[in-house]
Design brief:
two-stranded antiparallel sheet, 12% strand, single chain, 310 residues, 6-stranded antiparallel sheet, alpha+beta, 3 domains
Length: 310
C-alpha cells in the first residue's frame, strides 16, 4: 500500500496523465505521422540536402504529433500551423543575419518566436524548432537566406497540412481541421444541469486563469457538458428525442456514430412510441433502422447540430 501511495504522489507531482484513447485511435495517429513525415523528409532532402533536412524535419515531426495525434487541439489548427512556422522562420533568419554570436542569436530566435506567436495568436510549439534551425542550421540553411521561408518551410507546411486533411478525412470522428467536422454539439444557449455554458464564459475563465490550453473553446465546452451529463445531470430522456434532430452515441473511434430521426410514430404507450432513424456519420453510415423512442434515448448520449448552424 505504501508503494501504491508513493506512486500516486509521484504521478501527481509530474502531472502524469495516462492516455485513454483506443488502440484504433493510437494506430491511426501512428500511420498518419508516418505518411506525413515521409513526404516532408523527402522534400527537405530535395531542397537542402541531408544536413539541412536533419535540422528542419524535427520541427515538422513535432507538427506531425499535433496534426495526427491531437487533430482537434487548438495548437494544431491551420493558423497555428502556418503562422507558427512562418513567423518563426522569419525571426530565425533575421536573428542569424543581424545578431552577433550564435548562442545569443539562437536564444533570441526562440524567445522572440514565442513572443511573436503569442501576439499573433498562433502558438505552435514546433515553431520554436523552426526558428532555431534558421540560426544553427548550418551552411545549407544559411545559404537559403529568406528562401528558407518558402523552401522548405512553407512547402513542407503545405505538404503536412494537405496530408493531415486528406488522411483524417477517412475517420469521421477526428477530421482535421476541426472546422471540417460535419456535426457539433447543440449550441449551448441551452442549459446543462441548470448551468449556463457558453463560449464567452469559458474564455473569461481562461483569461482570468491566464493560461494557454491546447484545446478549442468548442471542445472544452463539450467536455464540460459531457462531464455534467456523465454525472447524471443531463442525460437524454425519451421526450428529448425529436423528429429531424441529430444524436450521437459518443463512442470513441470507429464505434462513433451519428443518427438523424427521419420519421416517428408517436404513442402514449412507450412500447409503441416508435422512431425511424438513418445513420448520417460514422459506424453504419447510410443504413437505417427503427426502435422505440426510449430505446433510442438509451443509445443516444447527446444531441448534435450540423456544423455551421447556430
Amino acid at each position: 500500500m505504501q508503494n501504491v501511495s508513493l506512486a500516486h504522489r509521484l504521478a501527481r507531482r509530474i502531472r502524469l496523465a495516462l492516455t485513454r484513447t483506443s488502440p484504433a485511435e493510437k494506430t491511426v495517429s501512428v500511420i498518419g505521422a508516418v505518411a506525413g513525415i515521409a513526404m516532408v523528409t523527402f522534400i527537405s532532402f530535395q531542397a537542402t540536402g541531408f544536413s539541412g533536412a536533419a535540422l528542419i524535419v524535427p520541427s515538422m515531426g513535432a507538427s506531425a504529433v499535433l496534426l495526427f495525434a491531437v487533430p482537434h487541439g487548438q495548437l494544431s489548427q491551420p493558423w497555428s500551423l502556418f503562422g507558427g512556422h512562418l513567423i518563426s522562420a522569419v525571426i530565425g533568419v533575421l536573428c542569424y543575419r543581424y545578431i552577433s554570436g550564435q548562442v545569443l542569436a539562437a536564444g533570441l530566435a526562440v524567445g522572440l518566436a514565442v513572443g511573436a506567436m503569442h501576439l499573433a495568436n498562433c502558438i505552435h510549439p514546433p515553431g520554436g524548432a523552426t526558428a532555431l534551425a534558421g540560426v544553427v542550421g548550418g551552411p545549407a540553411i544559411h545559404a537559403l537566406g529568406f528562401k528558407f521561408l518558402l523552401t522548405p518551410i512553407l512547402l513542407n507546411t503545405v505538404i503536412i497540412f494537405i496530408i493531415a486533411v486528406l488522411f483524417n478525412s477517412f475517420f469521421p470522428w477526428r477530421r482535421y481541421p476541426v472546422g471540417l467536422m460535419r456535426f457539433k454539439p447543440v449550441d449551448s444557449g441551452e442549459r446543462a444541469a441548470d448551468v449556463q455554458i457558453d463560449s464567452a464564459t469559458i474564455q473569461s475563465v481562461l483569461k482570468k486563469m491566464d493560461i494557454v490550453v491546447d484545446i478549442t473553446i468548442d471542445e472544452l465546452k463539450r467536455i464540460i457538458q459531457l462531464v455534467l451529463e456523465k454525472a447524471g445531470q443531463g442525460e437524454l430522456k425519451a421526450e428529448d428525442i425529436k423528429l429531424g434532430c441529430y444524436y450521437t452515441n459518443n463512442r470513441h473511434g470507429k464505434e462513433w456514430s451519428v443518427r438523424q430521426i427521419i420519421d416517428e410514430h408517436p404513442s402514449d404507450d412507450p412500447e409503441k412510441d416508435m422512431v425511424i432513424y438513418r445513420v448520417v456519420e460514422g459506424l453504419g453510415l447510410r443504413s437505417a433502422g427503427s426502435c422505440t423512442r426510449t430505446q433510442f434515448s438509451l443509445w443516444a448520449a447527446r444531441q448534435l447540430q450540423k456544423n455551421g448552424t447556430r
